[in-house]
């Protein structure tokens, strides 16, 4: 089900009834097993500043009857195609990408595809709660069976972990979780040039699977510089620091829309 007040922009993007403002668009990519509604609080915090569009992956909420995408590369390709279509409809509209956990990897790979197609690039990538990509899969993503998957979700905590105590809801979300972690288990960095888009990297100082050093390694994937910001908390620090993150995003993008588009 969708949260009351949501606007269905198309199959892929959701607005939550907020004032879109006159600032850039901010496309937000959910974590593994997550849905567009995971960005409801951030969307409300940015109301009037940015036009927040949360990505709705197949296999969850109003797209629950669609099969989830079990390949991170394919998921990024599908989102990139939607962004290209939006750019054709609104040429010159500035935008940025924000991804948390798995969403950071999807946002990054989406930006790479747009750069390869020489499309107007995002003003900035906000990469949260995810270690930098490498040539080998992240060992934390190598989970065997539902038992390990559920244990991993409990360890990460956050509001999403509450569904584990509701058997009916758990049964609904397990297919998406299995697909997402299956996609992560095979995700590796493919060699290529660094992006020319600046990064803001965000991480909780007590994240059990992403150290500050892991997060800092994102700077190797851009030639435009990367800012590293740490917050008190674990993997889902964003739940407790939405206002601070909204301020950070707004400050980082303020004035950036006046600069030339980056590829």
UniProtKB/TrEMBL annotation:
Q: Which keywords does this chain's UniProt record carry?
A: Hydrolase
The record's Gene Ontology biological-process terms are: lipid biosynthetic process
Mind listing the GO molecular function terms for this protein? Answer: hydrolase activity
InterPro entries assigned:
AB_hydrolase_fold, TEII, TesA-like, Thioesterase
Domain Thioesterase TesA-like positions: 27-253
Which family, according to UniProt?
Belongs to the thioesterase family.
Protein name, per record: Alpha/beta fold hydrolase
The species this protein was found in = Streptomyces boluensis
């Amino acid at each position: 089900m969708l949260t009351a007040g949501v606007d269905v922009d198309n199959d892929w993007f959701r607005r939550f009834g907020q004032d879109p403002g006159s600032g850039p668009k901010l496309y937000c990519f959910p974590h593994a097993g997550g849905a567009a509604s995971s960005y409801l609080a951030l969307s409300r915090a940015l109301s009037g500043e940015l036009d927040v569009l949360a990505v709705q992956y197949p296999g969850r909420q109003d797209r629950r009857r669609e099969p989830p995408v079990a390949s991170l590369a394919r998921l990024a390709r599908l989102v990139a195609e939607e962004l290209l279509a939006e750019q054709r409809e609104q040429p010159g509209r500035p935008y940025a990408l924000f991804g948390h956990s798995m969403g950071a990897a999807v946002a990054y790979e989406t930006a790479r595809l747009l750069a390869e197609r020489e499309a107007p690039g995002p003003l900035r990538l906000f990469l949260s709660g995810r270690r930098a990509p490498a040539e080998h899969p992240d060992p934390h993503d190598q989970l065997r069976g539902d038992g390990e998957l559920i244990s991993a979700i409990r360890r990460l905590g956050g509001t999403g972990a509450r569904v584990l105590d509701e058997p009916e809801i758990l049964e609904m979300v397990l297919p998406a979780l299995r697909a997402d972690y299956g996609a992560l288990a095979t995700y590796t960095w493919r060699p290529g040039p660094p992006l020319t888009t600046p990064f803001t990297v965000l991480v909780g100082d007590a994240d059990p699977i992403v150290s500050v050093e892991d997060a800092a390694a994102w700077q190797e994937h851009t030639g435009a510089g990367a800012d590293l910001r740490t917050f008190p908390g674990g993997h889902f620090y964003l739940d407790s620091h939405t206002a601070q993150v909204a301020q950070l995003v707004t400050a980082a993008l303020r004035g950036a829309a006046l600069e030339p588009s980056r590829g």
